[in-house]
Design goal:
It contains 13 helices and 15 strands. It has 388 residues and is an alpha/beta fold. It has 2 domains: 147 residues, NAD(P)-binding Rossmann-like Domain (Rossmann fold), CATH 3.40.50.720; 219 residues, Dihydrodipicolinate Reductase, domain 2 (2-Layer Sandwich), CATH 3.30.360.10. The chain starts with a strand and ends in a 7-residue tail after the last helix. Pfam families: GFO_IDH_MocA (PF01408), GFO_IDH_MocA_C3 (PF22725).
Length: 388
């Protein structure tokens, strides 16, 4: 078997150019550029200047049929991810789709179902935050039961400040027909994935979402969602693109501890000596008096650990590319299997649908109802074709 995977990059924009640079700079030692593809004629000159040895195509099907690539990454608008992923697998090539896996669950289910018919091919998704050593360690702690059963989660992630000029740079950006949504499908998919990857998939969601709240756009720029995990456990997710200062704080409360993550860089892990209810029931009236007077020795109740990892910029993306190639070459387990991509899309869809209908929505919502509501908004824009 070849020592390097020949990657075809569809879309030589910001993301595709970044991946190409990582590969040529040696950050992905088991991968090389097989070919480049973009429908923008100007990108051909860019490719010739920066990657003269890589064949360039303006038709991705032609690239898939060229024999120049072993695998493909889809750095294109969101609606195209499932379509291109399916075509890549249909041509018996390995597929790495960008996030989100798609815009609505019906198209992502089609992608996942087709991938299941190609078990010998590698199907991944670019969830680079799963390669963040901090979040990988947090998942290990939660999975090992070190903070007990999860009782509540909260994630405020508003570090996505985008000025109006950002939205004005393209006709398709921040539209229902072109992009499929706002902050939930563009900026926050990584957090929607990590939240469920670490804490589990909720049963239902109720949301309050503002569309064009602080920006002149059709899609959402402010989101507050409350999820229900069952058994009394709940979670809250808050995100926005108009907070200039921004906050990134993730809390996971268990019945035997708590994790607080600040800035996706530092986590404080508190482990209780006994389950919280046991500690509560075991306090005497004298203990309660000491508690309110601040005389309690906290070491009798819990211990704390601060976790911090250095994560070099680009290292997470390059690591996902390297892991994807390793899975192809020697079967190394994938950090982010492509089939997991539906989780974030499903939750984003449920948040939208809840806000559109004003009701709590189960995660197994009516997909036809969602698509009808989405198409209603696409029709109102009168710029793009409706979806099916």
């Amino acid at each position: 078997m070849a020592e390097k995977v020949r990657l075809g990059i569809i879309g030589l924009g910001t993301q595709g150019s970044m991946y190409a640079r990582f590969i040529t700079d040696g950050l992905v030692p088991n991968m090389e550029i097989g070919a480049l593809c973009d429908i923008d004629p100007a990108k051909k000159d860019v490719a010739a200047e920066n990657y003269p040895d890589a064949p360039f195509y303006d038709d991705y099907i032609a690239m898939l049929e060229s024999g120049d690539v072993d695998a493909v990454v889809t750095c294109v608008p969101h609606y195209l991810h499932p379509e291109m992923g399916i075509e890549t697998l249909r041509h018996n090539l390995h597929a790495l789709v960008e996030k989100p896996a798609g815009v609505y669950t019906k198209q992502v289910k089609e992608l996942n179902a087709f991938a299941e018919t190609k078990p010998d091919l590698t199907f991944g998704i670019m969830f680079n935050q799963r390669n963040n050593p901090l979040y990988r360690r947090i998942k290990e702690i939660v999975d090992a039961g070190e903070i007990g059963a999860i009782r509540r989660t909260n994630w405020i992630i508003t570090t996505w400040w985008r000025p109006q000029g950002y939205y004005n740079q393209s006709e398709w950006r921040a539209t229902w027909g072109g992009e499929g949504g706002g902050v939930l499908v563009n900026q926050a998919p990584h957090q929607l994935d990590l939240w469920q990857w670490i804490c589990g998939v909720p049963r239902s969601v109720y949301s309050k979402v503002a569309y064009g709240f602080r920006r002149d756009i059709a899609v959402e720029d402010e989101v507050t969602a409350v999820v229900d995990y069952g058994d009394g456990a709940t979670g809250v997710f808050v995100t926005a693109t108009h907070d200039l200062i921004g906050t990134d704080r993730f809390e996971i409360l268990g019945d035997q501890g708590k994790i607080v993550v600040e800035g996706s860089k530092t986590a404080t892990v508190t482990r209780l000596k006994r389950p919280e209810r046991e500690l509560s029931d075991g306090l005497s009236l004298e203990d309660v008096r000491k508690l309110f007077k601040g005389e309690v020795n906290t070491a009798d109740y819990y211990e704390q650990e601060v976790i911090e990892f250095e994560s070099a910029w680009g290292g997470q993306h390059a690591g996902v590319l390297e892991n994807f190639a390793a899975n192809i070459l020697d079967g190394t387990p994938l950090l982010a299997p492509g089939s997991d991509g539906i989780n974030g899309v499903r939750l984003a869809n449920a948040i939208h649908l809840s806000s559109w209908t004003g009701r709590e929505v189960p995660l197994d919502f009516d997909e036809d109802e969602y698509l009808a509501e989405l198409n209603k908004r696409i029709a109102e824009e009168a710029k793009f074709e409706q979806r099916n």
